[in-house]
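--- STAGE predict ---
source: upstream dedup step, 1 unique chain passed
mode: sequence only
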Amino acid sequence: MKFAGCLALVLALAMGAAPACAADPTEWENIEDLPAALLDKFLRYVAYDTMSDPDSSSSPSTAGQMEFAKILAKECEAIGLAEVEVSEYGVVTATLPGNINGEVPVLAFVVHMDTSPDASGVNIVPRVHENYDGKDIVLDGGTVLSTEEFPALLNYVGQTVITAGGGTLLGSDDKSGVAIVLTAMEYLILNPTIPHGTVRIAITPDEEIGRGTEHLDVAAFGADFGYTVDGGALGELEYENFNAAAATLEITGRSIHPGTAKGIMKNSVLIAAELAAAFPAEETPAATEGYEGFYHLDRVEGMVEKTVMHIIIRCFDREEFEARKGFVSDLAAQFNEKYGEGTVKATITDQYYNMKEKIDPAIIEYAKAAFEAAGVTPVIVPIRGGTDGAMLSYKGLPCPNLFTGGYNFHGPYEFNVLESMEKAARVVINLCIK
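--- STAGE serialize ---
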């Protein structure tokens, strides 16, 4: 990769120097209109229903996403981006052409337009709490953002906190990312004296259901490296994520009238309960944090004759990942020995892998310098989940994850902080400067 010169420049900015080839840092650090532009975009974007649907086979999975993709494409054109396209699958791509001479890497920013199906994204009514007073935030329908339950709120006293109205999620995951990236691109277009290389933008559908990168052709996209803007609290910089697999355990029983069932009935529901109890109780999501992996019993459906268990497997270390998958396979074999061959059928499917294996450390150093130039202390944390960046990294586009400022995604307690979003936009701008 050819980004050593870019790294040196941003490092110089972080240390207070102004290289001759760069715009005066004050020209882009004092962006008086940036918060208002960000807030305008964000509030408009969350009004669109773009929930993804895991039960849909179409791409995108919902019509609302295609509608929003077309709206975003028009907005990209309106702010001056070039090569704006909407694919038949709802992927929006655009280009900020470079304005400098010489060969520099093509940078990418990837965000997603869909919201999680875990909570309603219909008729979202955002609320803007200016100069937040540090008290509990009471929303409609009995939803209360309590400072006792969510003490992170107290970090933002005096700032502008944005919530949903109650009963829906906010949609900050990841419409804040969309607003951050497009606002940053708009600022660079409005300030053509700021030197930057070519930047590619991708806005994908269906990230929340694991299909965000299915229809993004990395080779045709033409970027050397990039960043997803889909993280959480101020300062988060993530380049490690779970290795992930889905395990389905199909349990076949034998249904007999309970009055004459002795010695004959084989109750698949009870076998499922026994299977669930065989997993380590201390290795569940509620009992783990940091770099600790887990097994998560996500869903159980069944009756006496047939029960299906849906389990997800997560951990950061590849060797441990293989061992965890082996544990599930061995458990199925043990139950088949106990209850008869064919009682338990285990199907295990890999979903994504830890992007750390594909990330050049220089990309992280480059991001750290951009954070510091924006007055943000990088907080290196592992992603206890996955992002489009994990998929893209294994497709040939190394893609760590940047913060958006949001908290409590996928539910009615979600909130974001305008000042954190502004910092994220400044980081994006810094990354573009050459």
